[in-house]
What does this fold into?
Amino acid sequence: MHEDRPTRSTRFSVLLCRDCCCGTETKHPDFDHQRQELELQKAAIEAGGSLHRVKCLDACGQSNVVVLRTPERGRVWLGDLADDASHEALCAYVRAGALGHLPPALEVRRFAPSTASEEVEGRCNLRGIPVRES
Ligand code: FES
It folds into this structure.
């Protein structure tokens, strides 16, 4: 019997891109990037997950970029996350364990990464830090 098994995901991670475009005031001067990171990290921890900063995911046209690594749905790439409405929606979704369908505010920001972006993301280790090939 597994009736006590948790119904929420307890292992997922959030990759938050922070590099040449994502997280910069130059590209997004009217958005509080520090608040985004702190609140997203708090939401991930509350749901039993974790947040990791990563360097450029080679998708700068979609900046700010977040990748949800979920046990249920694999990778979910989200872009254009530089406004309060999408930030609040993302925090709520992450806080709930990143389960189920994306809310509309996030679904419109979902994008299919390029092969190059997937390769960069795939080189991120478990801590979300890109590992350079020797
Ligand atoms: S800085 Fe985030 S995709 Fe390039």
Q: What stands out?
A: The chain has a mean pLDDT of 87.
